[in-house]
Amino acid sequence: MNSSILITSYNKGAYIEQCILSCINQDFSKGTEIVILDNCSDDNSDRIFNKYKNKIKLFKKERISNYPALNQIDLIKEGLSISTGNIIFLLDGDDYLLKNKVSEVSNLFKKNADLEVIFDVALKNINNEFSQFKIRKKISKDIWPTIINTSSISLKRKFLIDTLEHTFINNYNLLEIDFRINVYSRNIKKNFTIIKEPYTVYRQLENSIMGNIKKYSKTWWQKRKQAHTFMKNIYSNNTMEYKNKLDFLLTSFINKILKF
Q1: Nearest to 68 by CA among 150, 186, 156, 157
Q2: What CATH number has the domain spanning 3-211?
Q3: Number of other residues whose CB lies within 10 A of the CB of residue 213
Q4: How many C-beta atoms surround the C-beta of residue 190 within 10 A?
């Protein structure tokens, strides 16, 4: 079963070499291609890309939006058009894989034909201090789950295509691809598994997509409103009822106060 690692990057020069090497040095590399999708970085990324040009596919494209979430989704769409793998490993340019991820995840897909998405619970790297990502138990079952980050998502190509076709990718400019895949697979399709053993290192940075949004800020409330609206619409499109009305109403009320 061949696979593709899709690395999305913009000005990740400080981290991208470790990211690339973690893919090159996988203990199972046969049939695995490494595809770098770069939003025309203007740091030292090109020097690193050139260093590994014989081992990667490189695609460069200007950003299409002021919103990082939409740029990331656009790059992943482009990655699907130039990659060949039946299994897709998503990876942010500032994160990296542990050595056995491709082999372990590929074997799990082989053993479970009906499985479409595999999440692994990453190690968080905050200033070189490591801790395991925690999946919180939500009080309400009728809300989005704890979102497992992009670099911890491996999925079948056909399901990634299905996700992009059915999660309103031209809307909700604050909702990243990991939110959409988590909701679509875990709340709607229920065709996933979560591996508690970490195969990924997630670098938590202040200038990341998530790091730029402070809790209870105006943008945080706006994003929460988008998340509720997204949930309501995707449930409706799949003939399901989104029951978390109280939280939705409260979030909508606060957004009105903040004049969104």
Answers
A1: 150
A2: 3.90.550.10
A3: 14
A4: 9
Give dist(CA 23, CA 96) in Å, integer.
8
Average pLDDT over residues 160-167: 97
Say what the pTM is: 0.94
* Distances from the Cα of 122 to the Cα of 55, 95, 199, angstroms: 25, 10, 6
Tokens 């190509």 belong to residue: 157
DSSP per-residue letters across 173-205: TT--HHHHHHIIIIIII--EEEESS--EEEE--
* Mean pLDDT value across residues 151-157: 98
Domain extent listing, the chain: 3-211, 213-260
Q: Determine the Cα–Cα distance for residues 53 and 209; give it in Å rounded to an integer.
A: 27
Work out whether the CA dihedral 231, 210, 44, 151 comes out positive or negative: negative
Reading the block at residue 9, the tokens are: 């990057």
3-state secondary structure of 109: helix
